[in-house]
Design a protein that fits this description.
The protein has two helices and six strands, in the order H-E-E-E-E-E-E-H. By secondary structure, the chain is mainly beta. It has a domain of about 70 residues. The chain is extended.
Length: about 110
C-alpha cells in the first residue's frame, strides 16, 4: 500500500497569479498603517526565531524561540526591518520606538 497524497493531483495550476501579479502582502505578510506610512508585517513563529533581537518598542531583547513580528516600511525595502514583540507592536500607538542608548550612556 502506498502512502496517502496530501496534495491534489494536477489541479488548476493556472489559477495562481504570476510573480508580477501577486500582491506584496501575499508573499511578505500583511500591510498595516502606522504614523502615516504603510508597513509590511510578518509573523515569525517560535521555531523560526533563531537569533537574539532587540525590540524597538520596549528596548528589551527577544531571545531565540520566542514568536514575534518583523516589520518594515513598504516603500523602503527590507533593509529597514525591525523585530518587535507581538504585544509591543500591537501597542505601538501607546509605546513608540524608544531611543537606543549607547553602552556608556547613563541608565536614568
Amino acid at each position: 500500500m502506498s502512502p496517502r497524497r496530501n496534495r491534489p493531483r494536477g489541479g488548476d495550476r493556472g489559477s495562481r497569479p504570476s510573480g508580477e501579479e501577486r500582491d506584496v502582502t501575499s508573499v511578505f505578510g500583511q500591510r498595516e498603517s502606522w504614523r502615516g506610512e504603510d508597513w509590511l508585517v510578518r509573523r515569525i513563529g517560535g521555531a523560526a526565531a533563531a537569533k537574539h533581537y532587540r525590540c524597538p518598542g520596549c528596548d528589551q531583547e527577544i531571545p531565540p524561540g520566542v514568536p514575534h513580528v518583523v516589520v518594515w516600511p513598504e516603500h523602503n525595502g527590507a533593509d529597514d526591518r525591525r523585530h518587535w514583540h507581538t504585544a509591543c507592536w500591537n501597542a505601538r500607538d501607546r509605546r513608540g520606538a524608544k531611543e537606543q542608548r549607547g553602552r556608556g550612556a547613563p541608565r536614568y
